[in-house]
Design a protein that fits this description.
The complex is a heterodimer of chains A (about 425) and B (about 725). With about 425 residues, chain A is an alpha/beta fold. Chain A folds into three domains: about 160 residues, 3-Layer(bba) Sandwich (FAD/NAD(P)-binding domain); about 55 residues, no CATH class; about 160 residues, FAD/NAD(P)-binding domain (3-Layer(bba) Sandwich), CATH 3.50.50.60. Chain A has nine helices and 24 strands. Chain A has a five-stranded parallel beta sheet, covered by helices on one side. In chain A, helix 7 runs parallel beside helix 8. With about 725 residues, chain B is an alpha/beta fold. Chain B has four domains: about 120 residues, Rossmann fold; about 200 residues, 3-Layer(bba) Sandwich (FAD/NAD(P)-binding domain); about 120 residues, FAD/NAD(P)-binding domain (3-Layer(bba) Sandwich), CATH 3.50.50.60; about 160 residues, 3-Layer(aba) Sandwich (Rossmann fold). Chain B contains 18 helices and 32 strands. In chain B, the strands form ten sheets. In chain B, strands 9-6-5-13-24 form a five-stranded parallel beta sheet, covered by helices on one side. Chain B has a five-stranded parallel beta sheet with strand order 15-22-16-17-18. Chain B has a four-stranded parallel beta sheet with strand order 2-1-3-4, sandwiched between helices. The longest helix of chain B is centred in the last third of the chain and has 24 residues. The chains are: A alpha/beta (about 425), B alpha/beta (about 725).
């Protein structure tokens, strides 16, 4: 900072290495601050890494992630800790002490990503990156553009009597099955909480059939189905029988805007569904899509994207909340029952697959960081010294998260000045 | 610098088992005359990097070629500050993508390593461009966005100059009765509050770091980031101040309601949402025609917005504004508000505004298309609506109608910045965003094509007040970053680490003006004689100028025409006519990472290709094509980002310009009597790695069909 150049740099701890956290880290470091990023996953990029395309440009999220990774690679002021969680925060603005737990990766920095451990590994685990729609070995690379490009061993999935084939296979001494969790104490001037969100648990949406009715998936699962790195290498095939999807229904506000679930609007689901309509329409020219909605929320320039999708004669929109989803008799098809609010008519639609536009639940709803304040919905309440950024604070899309994260940097950087 | 090169070849990750490393070591020592050439089983391990460090100490190695894996991995291990370091991705380009122990793999490894050595021989350590700079920040616009940016920047220690066109600060907020707030804690926080704008204005005007110009406008902006000379006129006099960077917060105006005659504007009791605020400020909701308190107020949403004949976009804030204004009406418990909408848009926690309205029996929300407003008896109005929840065609009577008009950005018809740039006074590309000064990049919201200019608030996107304040804070941070970077000679986004800059050899300039026309960032002006004049502070280091220059005079310390030209001229060209050689120029930001990912899948790539990474495809100089083809290279393929309306190029125009230049290459090829199809370009996104093997094979096959380059063997 202009008057601070002779002082030591500000130290900022960023909790969360998703798009908001990365943006915070990069922007803070490029303004001269020392930044430590704490990420729970073994990779950075968070939810954005799981997305196939962005709305409204339909461009690949990896493009922006890669650029941010490159900036991290070239910036010595950024320190990354993956598989890490904050345990406690004490102190106050300008002088916080944070204890961080580093979980064992069982793979050290010698890893060259040669894949020998995975080839040798006899055990498998459900692939959480793909929402369990496929499996990986217990020694695995989270996805093929994962950053850092380092394998992980999921200790919980290892067989008790495993002959440790992974360790034998590694020629670089990178597999360390004796690795223990570590606790570190960090001192920083300020914190930015960018812990992001989880898709709302669709099992709680009783009437919408998830987990009971075949071929009912969530919007985040749809991202993985459409992605070239996903379980079907980007082919949108329905889970029960691998049939290409011809006829798809999107159910908006699956959990959102609902007192019994998420009282707020999740902001992104209308646009996400419109975007996912383009996935299927592009892949399968004869396909038909129908969207059940309460309001289509495409603010600002996004309206033009809505306009484009609406022009497609194979896409239809029905204003009405879905009442019930059941299995079609004698087939793997899905039946969606709703009321068309404009005509008052009861509607029953049969589809190959149904996508629930499940909402955004802040991670603070289920996993709070001790020492951080939250509102009743689990969103972070910023105070001086501890700023929230991105979806930990309010539901927002990637663009708004990026902007919000940059804004959080200035708040963080000002805290502790003149100390 | 006197370079003492060390070439280090890793034999791990199957490299040692797949190629003859001893032969490569010999080439390094004898043919390339590299003084220190060593191989190691795991160069990235402690022992491997220790070996390199030891040579730096003992042998004075200061230029390191690491022939191992991609620069995208093991970057910490191979970070040697003060040294030139070149990472040659032998593993990805010669081992994982070629047949092990084949002649092709060997030749590929040798070619890539030779190119790496030539690259460091031709390159130099960056030296920053240093000039005298200031760190003051100009904020254009004294509304809530501009004032927030000014206060934030001043609080962080930076001097601020604030220019406001009106005679007082505050902008539109001055006209509001109350403001709507996004509740951070919906259980406690009120939705509607006093604006407190007076306090903000006081804070700005009393801040010693902020100099305020009122009734003022920017007459002209000359110079470059760190050293802009901005002439501000105010009350008949003008003054020039030195500025480091700019926050553009020029705001918006309501859409011209006189164009909304079909919605009744012009009738006495039809007002806009802004006019309605002014009525509410007087206390009771008195309608204009007779001052009678309005008991039944109809709000017509999307009055102009979402309408191709008016504003094609949604103005994002009008739904919340009307929900707020419905509460003004409901101050009188006997009054009712009706909101007639297409969709109620209250994303995130704004949903609580919607909930509050739903829970209020005096607020009625009805979806439908308003088709017209007509006069009823006694100054009342009929709102006609179709396709509504109430049935096909309905007519609703109201005492007063509020048109929820939308936002028109200040930049829609005024350049505001008045840049004295050859490429024009305003921001380019505004037509892509309906006049808003928006970013084309979802991931990077503050990017404009004018370095050091960061837009915020409603001039950037339609948004509400709380969002505008966040936006202002972000833009202030970017403005700070910009002045700090330019002060130390480092580029800003996207090459925010780069200390090089374009250094043209002006004696050979022919003033052809291609660089000044093509620079995506308007970094090059012309003097009175038409000679280009580089403004490095504006430069983003994409090297588009280097690609554009027919005289090849633009160079960066570590990137120039001769460097890439020498590299591609060093590539082996098999004499065997069945074995074509094709050079692939790949964007290092997207296409190359995609190739890396394809390599991680161990997918085979056609052995004909040799890949060279470019800063941006915009830096492609046509001489490289002539150089390569005249040496017998059979074809050249450019891999770059998607261009057009939704362009993905981080330098906005790079891939598009490369394609444009390829259109002209015909001439060069004609001179050489070669087929134009030998040179091609493919737009490739970073996630399309699965398509790379077949795209490359397809191109190689097409070149094979044309036949071998007749220059082969010359």
């Amino acid at each position: 900072m202009s008057e601070q150049s002779s002082r030591r740099p500000h130290r900022i701890l960023v909790i969360g290495g998703g798009f908001s956290g990365l943006t915070t880290a990069v922007d803070a470091a490029e303004t001269g601050a020392e930044v430590i990023v704490i990420e729970r996953n073994p990779y950075l990029g968070g939810r954005v890494a799981q997305l196939n395309k962005y709305f409204p440009k339909l461009c690949p999220p990896l493009c922006g992630l890669e650029l941010n990774f490159k900036r991290i690679r070239t910036n010595p002021l950024v320190t990354l800790h993956t598989m890490a969680e904050v345990e406690t925060i004490t102190g106050g603005p300008g002088d916080y002490t944070v204890t961080v737990k580093l979980h064992p990766r069982y793979v050290n920095d010698n890893c060259t990503a040669c894949n020998a451990c995975a080839e040798a590994c006899p055990a498998e685990r459900p692939n959480d990156f793909n929402f369990g729609m496929d499996r990986t070995k217990a020694a695995y690379l989270p996805f093929n553009q994962a950053f850092p490009q380092k394998y992980v061993i999921d200790g919980a999935s290892c067989a008790a009597d495993c002959g440790k084939a992974c360790r034998e296979a590694c020629r670089y001494g990178a597999v360390d099955l004796e690795m223990k969790a570590e606790t570190r104490e960090l001192r920083v001037d300020s914190l930015v909480v960018a812990t992001g969100w989880d898709p709302y648990d669709p099992n709680r949406l009783d009437l919408l059939g998830f987990g009971k009715v075949k071929n009912v998936i969530t919007n985040m699962m749809m991202e993985r189905l459409a992605s070239p790195t996903g379980p079907t290498a980007g082919k949108i095939l329905r889970p029960s029988d691998g049939k290409p999807v011809e006829n798809i229904v999107f159910v908006q506000c699956a959990g959102s805007r609902d007192e019994n679930h998420l009282p707020y609007c999740s902001s992104i689901c209308c646009l996400a569904s419109l975007k996912q309509v383009t996935y299927i329409r592009e892949q399968n020219p004869g396909s038909k899509a129908r969207i059940f909605y309460i309001d289509i929320r495409t603010p600002g320039k996004y309206e033009k994207f809505y306009g484009k999708v609406k022009e497609d004669p194979n896409v239809s929109f029905t204003k009405g909340k879905v009442a019930r989803i059941v299995q079609a008799e004698g087939s793997d098809d899905v039946i969606v029952e709703a009321e068309d609010m404009l005509t008052g008519a009861k509607v029953k639609v049969q589809a190959d697959m149904v996508v629930l536009a499940t909402g955004m639940e802040p991670t603070g709803a289920s996993r709070k960081v001790s020492g951080v304040g939250y509102n009743g919905d689990g969103f972070v309440l910023s105070v001086q010294g501890v700023s929230a950024a991105g979806c930990s604070k309010n539901p927002m899309d990637v663009a708004r998260s990026a902007q919000d994260a940059t804004s959080a940097v200035l708040k963080a950087i000002k805290t502790g000045q003149g100390r | 610098m006197d370079k003492n090169i060390g070439l280090y070849i890793c034999t791990g990750c199957s490299i040692g088992e797949s190629v003859n490393v001893e032969k490569i070591v010999n080439i390094g020592k004898n043919a390339l005359r590299v003084p220190v050439v060593k191989s190691h089983f795991a160069l990235c391990g402690k022992e491997g990097t220790g070996l390199i460090r030891n040579d730096m100490q003992a042998e004075g190695v200061n230029t390191v070629v690491v022939a191992a894996c991609s620069p995208r991995v093991k970057y910490e291990e191979f970070d040697f500050p003060g040294c030139i370091v070149e990472r040659v991705p032998v593993r990805e380009l010669a081992i994982w993508t070629q047949e092990p122990n084949s002649e092709e793999a060997q030749l590929a490894a040798e070619d890539y390593i030779r190119m790496g050595v030539i690259k460091v021989q031709k390159g130099d350590l960056p030296e920053p461009y240093l000039m005298e700079t200031v760190k003051s920040i100009l904020v254009i616009g004294g509304g809530i966005t501009g004032m927030t940016a000014a206060l934030q920047a001043a609080d962080a220690g930076y001097p601020v100059v604030l220019v406001e066109k009106e005679d007082r600060l505050g902008g539109f907020v001055n006209r509001l009765h109350k403001i709507g707030k996004i509740p951070a804690d919906p259980a406690k926080d009120p939705l509607i509050a006093d604006s407190g704008i007076e306090n903000t204005i006081k804070a700005v005007e009393s801040n010693p770091k902020i100099k305020v110009y009122k009734s003022a406008k920017v007459e002209k902006t000359e110079g470059q980031p760190g050293a802009f000379d901005v002439t501000i006129s105010s009350n008949g006099s003008s003054e020039t101040v030195r500025i480091g960077s700019v926050v553009l917060a020029a705001g918006w105006r309501p859409y011209d309601a006189s164009k909304l005659g079909h919605l009744g504007y012009g009738m006495p009791n039809v007002v806009t949402n802004i006019e309605f605020e002014e009525i509410a400020r007087q206390g009771k909701i008195a309608r204009p025609s007779d001052g009678k308190e309005a008991k039944k107020v109809a709000f017509v949403q999307c009055a102009g917005q979402r309408d191709p004949d008016h504003l094609p976009y949604c103005s994002a804030m009008c739904c919340t504004t009307s929900l707020k204004q419905a509460q003004y009406v409901r101050q009188n418990p006997a009054a009712a508000a009706m909101i007639l909408y297409k969709d109620i848009r209250t994303p995130g926690n704004l949903e609580y505004f919607y909930k509050a309205a739903q829970n209020d029996p005096g607020v009625m929300l009805t979806k439908g298309e308003v088709t017209g407003v007509s006069e009823a008896d006694g100054g009342n109005l009929y709102v006609e609506m179709q396709d509504s929840l109430l049935g096909g065609q309905v007519k609703i009577e109201a005492d007063m109608v509020v048109l929820a008009t939308g936002i028109v950005p200040a930049t829609a018809d005024d350049p505001i910045l008045m840049l004295q740039y050859r490429q024009g006074p305003g921001l380019p590309d505004l037509d892509l965003y309906d006049g808003f000064a928006d970013s084309n990049f979802i991931c990077f919201q503050y990017e404009t094509r004018r370095t050091g200019v960061y837009a915020a608030g409603c001039v950037r996107q339609p948004m509400n007040m709380a969002e505008a304040q966040e936006d202002a804070t972000g833009a202030a941070l970017k403005a700070i970053q910009s002045v700090e970077h330019v002060a130390t000679g480092i580029a800003v986004h996207p090459r925010a680490w780069d200390m090089t800059y374009p250094d043209p050899y002006m004696q050979r300039c022919t003033s052809c003006k291609r660089c000044t026309e093509e620079c995506p960032f308007g970094a090059i002006d012309e003097d009175e004689k038409g000679t280009p004049f580089y403004k490095p502070g504006r430069c983003r280091r994409c090297a588009t100028c280097m690609g554009a220059c027919p005289e090849r005079i633009v160079s960066f310390k570590d990137y120039h025409v001769d460097m890439i030209g020498s590299m591609l001229k060093s590539v082996s060209v098999p004499e065997d006519e069945d074995k074509p050689r094709i050079i692939v120029l790949a964007c290092e930001n997207d296409a190359y990472p995609a190739i890396d990912t394809a390599a991680l899948q161990k997918g085979r790539l056609d052995p004909a290709i040799r890949i060279i990474q470019l800063r941006c495809l915009g830096s492609t100089n046509l001489v490289w094509i002539a150089d390569a083809l005249s040496r017998g290279v059979d074809g050249m393929l450019l891999l770059g980002c998607k261009y057009g309306e939704n362009y993905q190029c981080h330098f906005a125009k790079g891939s598009e310009l490369a394609n444009y230049r390829l259109g002209k290459v015909q001439e060069t090829l004609g001179r050489l009597q070669l087929e134009a199809e030998r040179v091609g370009m493919i737009q490739l996104a970073i996630d399309e790695y699965d398509k790379i093997p077949s795209l490359i094979t397809g191109f190689v096959e097409r070149v094979k069909e044309i036949g071998p380059n007749p220059f082969k063997g010359f």
